[in-house]
Each structure stands twice: as C-alpha cells, then as structure tokens.
Amino acid sequence: MKGILLSGATAAIFAFFATPVLIKFLAKKGYGQIIRDDGPTTHQIKRGTPTMGGVILILASVVGYFVSHVVTGVAATTSALLVIALVIGLGIVGFIDDWLKVAKQKSLGLNAKQKLIGQGIVAGAFAYAGLQFPDQAGLTPISTNLSTVRDTSIKFMAGLVIVWVIVMVLGTSNGVNLTDGLDGLATGAAVMVFTAFILIGVWEFGQSCAVSPGLKCYAVRDPLDLAVLAAALAGACGGFLWWNASPAKIFMGDVGSLALGGALAGLAITLRIQLLLIALGFIFVLITSSVIIQVAYFKITGGKRIFKMAPLQHHFELIGWGEVTIVIRFWIIASLGVAAGLGLFYAQWVVS
C-alpha cells in the first residue's frame, strides 16, 4: 500500500505544479487549441487555450511510478513497464497529431488512416511483447484467454490475441479522444476508472494463486504493481484536472487522450478484466456509441440525424445545457459505470 500511496501522491503533486509551468510555456509560444468552425459556437471562446497538456499526464505518471519504486526499493515489473510503453507510444502518435494542428493553425492533424495506423503499430507491439516474458509460474503479462472479470476458458491463438488487443486499444484510445470535448470531462472520468483499477489490482494480489492458492485464486502476473501504476495515472489526472476543469486553462490534446485511452486498455488487458472495461468505462462507451449511431443513421436515412451533433456531449450543449452541468451529469454516469463494474467484479468472487 505504501507504494500505491507514494505513486499516486507523487504523480498528483508533479502534475499540479508542472502544469502551470507548461501553460506559461505554451502560451508564450502561441501553441493554442484550434477550434472547429462546425462545432458549438460557445467553444469559440476557447480558441487559443494552450493544448498538448497530455505531456504532463504522461510525465507525471512515469515520475510517480518510478519514484515510488525508488523509495520502496521494489523492482519495476514487466507488466507495468509494457503498459507505460503503450502509453508513451500512443502519446507520441497524439503529440504528432497535435503538433501538426498547431503548426498548420488548422483543426487538421494526422488523417484518420494515419492515426489508426500509428495506434495499431503501437498496440500490436504491446500485444506481441505482452505474450513474451513468462514468470516462474509461466504467466505472461497478457493472457491468451478472453477475460471478463477474470480469465475465461475461451482461448485464442497468439495472432488472434494480438488482433483483439489492437481492437481494444484502438477502441479505448479513440473513445477517450471523443470524450475529451468538454473541460475536465475525460480527465475526471479517467480518475474514477483508474481508481477502480487500483482496487482490482490490490484484490487480485491478495487473492492471487501465488499468495492464496485455491479454486477462486487469480492467475494474474504483477497485479499489485499494476495497481501502483494505476495510482500514478489517477494521481496525474487529479493534479491535471485542477487546471483542466471549467474554465480550462489547458487542454490535454490528443497526446493526452490517446495515452489515457491506451492506459485504460492496457491495464484492463494485463489485469485480465478485458470485457469488464465496458462497464468501468461506460461513459466512454456511451459517447463512442453516439458517434457510431449518428454516422450509421445518417448514411442509412440519406442525411437525417438522431442527435443534433455527435459526440453526445455536444448534443446536450446544442439543446441548451450548460457545459458544467453536462460534465457533472456525465461524471455521475461514469461513477455509476465504475460502481457497476466493481460490483460485477466482486459478485463473481462471492457467487463462484
């Protein structure tokens, strides 16, 4: 527990004090947010707000994680290092996208194909590496079994595991990217999910087959260290949220949203709770679904729309809801999803 507290506190403090420094630097350089002309008109006042704040989220998480290990003297684990590599890799893809937007002074960075290819390469490398490095018990960071609240009996070939991991990472990273449209919405929701991962990691460690053998034990590699990493990510988001909440002084940009989405997927995969992420990250699923439904309905009906605008949060803006009201109500939905996910996780343990 000491490592978890150190990790989260260090990341939160780092993010809280480093973010205003980055804000001043970005403002001085003129690296501000480019606002789409076809978006809600209320967003035009945000034009020029410093962006690429996700750099701080990544740095704070990494610093928090490693400071915790230096202080406690515990070695870093392969599982956590792979998730960190995934976060950094996706952050680089997002940074390139953000940089191109700032350089061109247009809301046009990498095109969709280029971004998906970049994300796919990073996710594929993570998946392949995760199937290597077995520990003494033969456990690799990523299982070849499909998991819900734990590994199921459904086993995939290595190639299919890699494809599945790529799909998960693409879906989650782009889901967070779509959610990051209102001040603090994605950051606050991510804090809740990362906190859930802390609880799950600690529980899996306490009931792991190495610590507590039995029919109900969890065969997960490095769950406690993944909880330490989740704490660093939660702390980083919390410290950053102080400056990202409405009215935002800085936006995380694609460098932050893609990295956070990758972290969510990476932790769910390595903790062997893949499909549970649907409940834990329900707000991201809901917002992504609104885009899919809008596009599909538009094409089927030849131009009609279900929502005034997608993603879903912008629909509520256009019908007159205030931004803070939308964010708070969506946070409530996010918290209910996290509660449901934790309930499902614990219920399986009780009834099995």
Helix content: 55-70%
The number of domains is: 1
What's the overall geometry? globular
Strand order of the largest sheet: 1-2
Give the helix/strand class. mainly alpha
Tally of contiguous helical segments: 12
Overall pLDDT score: 92
- What about the largest sheet? 2 strands, antiparallel
Beta fraction: under 5%
Description of the structure:
The chain is mainly α. It has one domain (2-351). Helices cover 67% and strands 2% of the residues. The protein is built from twelve helices and two strands; from the N terminus they run H-H-H-H-E-E-H-H-H-H-H-H-H-H. It has a two-stranded antiparallel ribbon with strand order 1-2. Strand 1 and strand 2 (151-155) form a beta hairpin. The radius of gyration is 20 Å and the shape is globular.
Summarize the structure.
The protein has 352 residues and is mostly helical.
Short descriptors:
single chain, 352 residues, mainly alpha, two-stranded antiparallel sheet, 12 helices, globular
Question: Helices and strands in order, then pairings?
Answer:
Elements: H1 2-29, H2 54-72, H3 78-104, H4 112-130, E1 145-147, E2 151-155, H5 158-179, H6 185-206, H7 223-244, H8 253-270, H9 277-280, H10 282-301, H11 312-318, H12 323-351
Antiparallel strand pairs: 1-2
Helix pairs in contact: 1-2, 1-7, 2-3, 2-7, 2-8, 3-4, 3-8, 4-5, 5-8, 5-10, 6-7, 6-8, 6-12, 7-8
